[in-house]
Write a structure and sequence with these properties.
Blueprint: H1 16-32, E1 47-52, H2 58-69, E2 73-78, H3 90-98, E3 104-109, H4 114-119, E4 125-131, H5 137-151, E5 158-162, H6 169-180, E6 184-188, H7 198-202, E7 205-206, H8 210-216, E8 219-222, H9 238-245, H10 249-253, E9 260-262, H11 275-278, H12 285-303
Helix pairs in contact: 1-5, 1-12, 2-12, 5-6, 5-12
The protein binds N-carbamoyl-L-aspartate.
Length: 311
């Protein structure tokens, strides 16, 4: 079995079989990560560059750890301290790095489409670690993996994505993936943070009422307000956002069921999510982070050409 694509640019381009293969392979790597010796030789002699043109904590460490657990050689690039600050173009930077015999590129960039552009110009496999407001495919995959682990299935699952849908690449990757895998998606947030034609364009339901959305769903994936991507005022204040759309203990206690709470991080505590929810046993936020390493190992392995299914 191998993937139908050479790069992971977005969930949009993956088939249902691709997604299933990545999730199954991640299950195997998850088992490896429970062993006392967590390292396997699968990517020995494969060299990977982590190109981060935008801030990251979880995603960067998760990729780096996944690469190390697979025995790959890695180099790390952060835009501050690089020649990009001296005016070098993205393509020049990457061509120079590749001339040092680098096989795979993991990249995060604030420009939507940057990894797609690179994929047209360089021979190495590219993995998108988040491009602007477009997609964050490994986050979508690790969210799906975590939901499936917790609730046993994706098909028919009712997933609410709550918050700043407009500026969230995590929302986009989740929507593509959950639609392909037969889950039901409702997006919820203030009307100014939800794209106008999302229902028609992406086949999701829209509900502006948080209480009703929570009553409907099995899983609430709560997103951060991406203030750094908003160039105009889209809601009155963070305090009022919390009153209308913050996920709170009392709201959850008043439901007649126990839903699963997720968040891709970083959390703005007291804005989209209150601490007594984030730290409760209903929340699988740290399990998402843990699962992220296994999911990224699966993606790297399947795209490396070391998978016996590849030729
Ligand atoms: C997200 C991102 O960078 O897109 N974080 C992450 O990768 N875990 C979400 C966010 O920044 O809010």
């Amino acid at each position: 079995m191998s993937l139908s694509t050479r790069h992971l640019l977005g969930i949009k381009d993956l088939t249902v079989d691709d997604i299933s293969l990545i999730l199954e392979t991640a299950e195997q790597f998850k088992e490896v990560l429970q062993r006392p010796v967590k390292k396997v030789p699968s990517l020995r002699d494969v060299t990977i560059v982590n190109l981060f043109y935008e801030n990251s904590t979880r995603t960067r460490f998760s990729f780096e750890l996944a690469e190390k657990r697979l025995s790959a050689d890695t180099i790390n690039f952060a835009v501050s301290g690089s020649s990009a600050a001296k005016g070098e173009t993205l393509l020049d930077t990457v061509r120079n790095i590749l001339s040092m015999k680098v096989d795979m590129v993991v990249m995060r960039h604030s420009a939507s489409g940057a990894p797609h552009f690179l994929a047209q110009h360089i021979p190495a496999a590219i993995i998108n670690a988040g491009d602007g407001v477009n997609e964050h495919p490994t986050q979508g995959l690790l969210d799906a993996f975590s939901m499936r682990k917790k609730l046993g299935k994706l098909e028919g699952l009712k997933v609410a994505i709550i918050g700043d849908i407009m500026h969230s690449r995590v929302a986009m990757s989740n929507i593509y993936l959950l639609n392909k895998m037969g889950a039901k998606v409702t997006v919820c947030g203030p009307p100014t943070l939800i794209p106008k034609y999302i229902r028609e364009s992406f086949g999701v339901e829209v509900n502006y009422n948080l209480k009703e959305t929570l009553e409907w769903c099995d899983v609430a994936n709560v997103l951060r307000i991406q203030l750094e991507r908003q160039n105009q005022v889209l809601f009155s204040s963070l305090r009022e956002y919390n009153i209308a759309y913050g996920v709170k203990r009392k709201l959850l206690d008043n439901l007649n069921k126990e839903i699963v709470v997720m968040h891709p991080g970083p959390i703005n505590r007291g804005v989209e999510l209150d601490s007594d929810v984030a730290d409760s046993k209903q929340s699988i936020i740290l399990q998402q982070v843990e699962n992220g390493v296994a999911v990224r190992m699966a993606v790297l392995y399947l795209l490396s050409g070391r998978n016996p299914g590849n030729n």
